[in-house]
Amino acid sequence: MGKKLVGLDIGSTAIRAVEVENPGHQRPTILRFGEVPLPDGAVRAGEVIDAATVTAAIRKLWSSSGIKTRDVVLGVGNSKVVARDITVPRLPLNQVRESLPFQVQDLLPVPATEALLDFYPASEAEGETGPMLQGMLVAAIKAPILVNVNAVTAAALRPTNVDLSPFALTRLFSNPESANLTTLLVHIGAATTTLVALDGHVPHFVRFLPNGGADITKGISQRMDISARDAEAIKRSVGVVAARATAEQRPALEVSFELVNETLLAIRATIQYFQNARANRAIDRIVMSGGGSKLLGLTETVAEFTKVPASQPDPFSLVPVARGLKGSGDAQDMSVALGLVTGVSA
Ligand SMILES: Nc1ncnc2c1ncn2[C@@H]1O[C@H](COP(=O)(O)OP(=O)(O)OP(=O)(O)O)[C@@H](O)[C@H]1O
Ligand SMILES: [Mg+2]
Fold first, then answer.
1. Which terminus has fewer CB within 10 Å in the chain: N or C?
2. Which domains does the chain have, with CATH numbers?
3. Residue nearest to atom 20 of ligand 1 (CA)
């Protein structure tokens, strides 16, 4: 029996957990998974607002899914997280990490002591003053992460690690076939959209946009003066496929187009940025995930707009699953939770 670990993704619409065996493998085995929806406002853009509700939802998730493992890896990822390319003198990694507070103060909105800092090396280069290491700096403000950790601990779980959702997605969607490709990961949640540009399996650029599927629903509800529930239903049935909209549903289609357009422009800008920064290396493929990417016609629209092939793989098709695997929730929604326990040492 190998080591078991659970990836826990606290989203603004739901909490999701995936329990795996052998999390250190690129292809761990999924044992159990589940989802419990959250009421509006309990979590905002990845930050726990109503801790009691979230803790109760986590307990419910463990009892309803049958997950027994208490060791969890917690995901973080919202627009308050800073992730950018930096170049630092080449030193052993532990020394680079120790030097980060001095390197990065001017990039941060808070004193470096109030942030969690990490560095992911990507490549080495020769600088004017000697050998340099180029890589990604990640900085997240401690206080809101601690609130999330406390909500998890209060549910009698042991958070063994906190990891950034872009890295979870990177591990999940990287496979031997993609080692020589460049990839743009597009993860559209309810409140946050995450873009990650990869060269092979190395993330070179991460961008968080403070919007997602919930903004489309809200826009439709306001434009058509209907309830959020009705707006959600129309959004899901029409998507961005003009032929699917009745005359009455036309305003919903327009709202979806307007908001999707913002995402398309951000995707195109990111592809351009990557290309400029990486000596004209183009993006070979786009991999979409997150509930917001299920919008009908979106994957096709993204491919058409960028002229880059886009797909929306089923996360559970990428790893082995235990026999008779059952769980609540759509496999498509488990990408972050699964990625958190894919290819990590427990
Ligand atoms: N079939 C569908 N068509 C269109 N949109 C959908 C569909 N299914 C889900 N969504 C949208 O996906 C969004 C939820 O995505 P997801 O579950 O990834 O978000 P979350 O993890 O709860 O939130 P976040 O990560 O932003 O905090 C909602 O806005 C929902 O309307
Ligand atoms: Mg999410």
1. N
2. 82-141 (3.30.1490), 177-312 (3.30.420.40)
3. 11
Ligand 1 centroid to residue 77 C-alpha, Å: 15
The pairing of beta strand 115-127 with beta strand 130-141: antiparallel
Q: How many whole angstroms separate alpha carbon 322 and alpha carbon 163? A: 25
* Confidence (pLDDT) at 26: 82
Q: Which single residue is written with the structure tokens 């085995």?
A: 29
- Point out the ligand nearest to the CA of residue 210: 1
Taking only the tens place, the pLDDT of each residue in 105-145 is 887 878 888 888 888 888 888 888 899 998 888 888 888 99
Cβ 187 under 6 angstroms from ligand 1? no
Amino acid in position 320: P
First and final CA of the chain: distance in angstroms? 14
Query: Do the beta carbons of residue 252 and residue 231 sit within 8 Å?
Result: yes
- Convert the pLDDT of each residue in 142-163 to its tens digit: 889 999 999 999 999 999 999 9
Question: Ligand 1 centroid to 13 CA: how many Å?
Answer: 7
User: What's the mean pLDDT when you consider all of the chain?
Assistant: 93
Residue with tokens 């040492």: 345
57 contacts 155 by C-beta, under 8 angstroms = no
Confidence bin at 86 (pLDDT 50/70/90): confident
Q: In angstroms, what is the span from residue 336 Cα to ligand 2's centroid?
A: 7
- Contact indicator for 195, 266 with CB cutoff of 8 Å: yes
Decide whether any atom of ligand 1 lies within 6 Å of the 215 Cβ. no
| φ, ψ for residue 248, nearest 5 deg | -65, -35
- Residues pairing with 119 in the sheet: 137
* Angle CA 309–312–317, to nearest 5: 120
Q: Indicate the burial class of 115 (C-beta count within 10 angstroms; 0-12, 13-18, 19 or more).
A: buried
Cα 292 to ligand 1 centre (Å): 4
